[in-house]
Write a structure and sequence with these properties.
The chain is mainly beta and 74 residues long. It has a single domain, classed as OB fold (Dihydrolipoamide Acetyltransferase, E2P), CATH 2.40.50. Helices cover 7% and strands 45% of the residues. A hairpin with a 6-residue loop joins β4 and β5. The longest helix has 5 residues. It is globular and about 30 Å long.
C-alpha cells in the first residue's frame, strides 16, 4: 500500500491561473520550461486556502502523467 511518505516532495511556483481552479506550475529545478497542469487538493479547497500567481507550492504528481495535486502553499 502506498503511503504519503513514499512520495518525494516536489516544489514549484504558480505561473498562470486557469478556469475551473486549474493552475500551471513551473517545477523547481526543471530547466526545460515544461509546465505542470495542477489543481487544489480537497483540504485546501475545503478550508478556502487561496493560491495566487507567484506562490511556491508543494505538489503530488500523478505517476501516470495526468494532473498534479497542490497539497501545500509555502
Amino acid at each position: 500500500m502506498n503511503n504519503k511518505k513514499d512520495k518525494p516532495a516536489v516544489y514549484g511556483t504558480i505561473i498562470e491561473s486557469l478556469p475551473n481552479a486549474l493552475y500551471k506550475v513551473k517545477l523547481d529545478g526543471d530547466d526545460s520550461g515544461n509546465l505542470v497542469l495542477s489543481f487544489l487538493a480537497g483540504k485546501m479547497s475545503h478550508n478556502r486556502i487561496r493560491v495566487v500567481i507567484g506562490d511556491r507550492v508543494m505538489l503530488d504528481i500523478d505517476p501516470y502523467g495526468g494532473k498534479a495535486r497542490i497539497t501545500r502553499r509555502m
